[in-house]
Amino acid sequence: MKALVTGGVRSGKSFHAESLVVAHEQVVYVAPGPPADPDDDPEWAERVARHRDRRPAHWVTLETTDLVAAIEDGGDDTAVLVDCLGTWLTAQLDELDAWDAIREDWEPVLMERVDAAASALARTSRTVVLVTNEVGMGVVPEHRSGRVFRDLLGVVNQRFSAECDQVLLVVAGRVLTL
């Protein structure tokens, strides 16, 4: 099974994604964003801690932005949960120094990375559940960086959803199959 779970902030998407793999004996929880630094953002660090506390102790947490390796490495009996594509995209944009650069200078490299990860998803026979944010349903962001992120996350979500058996939208804790 390959599933993409999307929704707004605090919609319940991560909790639902975890429920999709909880029956697996082996789960790799991929955290593709930077580790939370309690000194920089205590609220974010608290949220990360709550996520960790509710996961079974035998789940392995892997902090990496290498989604290809995270999806491909390991046996077919190990489920992979990626939480979330939004933090992965942010890390990619940071690494490419894309926030203030000319889009044509970094976008081809980004799209190669997106395609490589989505292709790894297409090839694997493992259970993979991807969590992502749905950010394009509200106000147009005031700043360029917000508009770039919103637009690119929409592209990323479409590319990954094309490789999934299920796409689920979580709104107020309710799950809708798309």
From TrEMBL:
Where in this chain does the entry annotate a coiled-coil region? none
A GO molecular function held by the record:
GTP binding
Q: In which pathway does it act?
A: Cofactor biosynthesis; adenosylcobalamin biosynthesis; adenosylcobalamin from cob(II)yrinate a,c-diamide: step 5/7; Cofactor biosynthesis; adenosylcobalamin biosynthesis; adenosylcobalamin from cob(II)yrinate a,c-diamide: step 6/7
Q: Binding positions for GTP?
A: 7-14, 31-33, 52-55, 63, 83
Tell me which residues this entry annotates as catalytic.
H51 (gmp-histidine intermediate)
Q: What keywords would UniProt list here? A: ATP-binding, Cobalamin biosynthesis, GTP-binding, Kinase, Nucleotide-binding, Nucleotidyltransferase, Transferase
* Catalysed conversion reaction: adenosylcob(III)inamide + ATP = adenosylcob(III)inamide phosphate + ADP + H(+); adenosylcob(III)inamide + GTP = adenosylcob(III)inamide phosphate + GDP + H(+); adenosylcob(III)inamide phosphate + GTP + H(+) = adenosylcob(III)inamide-GDP + diphosphate
Its domain of life? Bacteria
Q: Which GO terms describe its biological process?
A: cobalamin biosynthetic process
Q: What is its EC number?
A: 2.7.1.156, 2.7.7.62
| Signal peptide residues on this chain, from the entry's feature table | none
Q: Which family, according to the similarity comment?
A: Belongs to the CobU/CobP family.
Report the protein's function.
Catalyzes ATP-dependent phosphorylation of adenosylcobinamide and addition of GMP to adenosylcobinamide phosphate.
User: Which NCBIfam families does the UniProt entry name for this protein?
Assistant: PRK05800.1
- Kindly provide the name given to this protein in its UniProt entry: Adenosylcobinamide kinase
> What's the source species for this entry?
Aeromicrobium erythreum
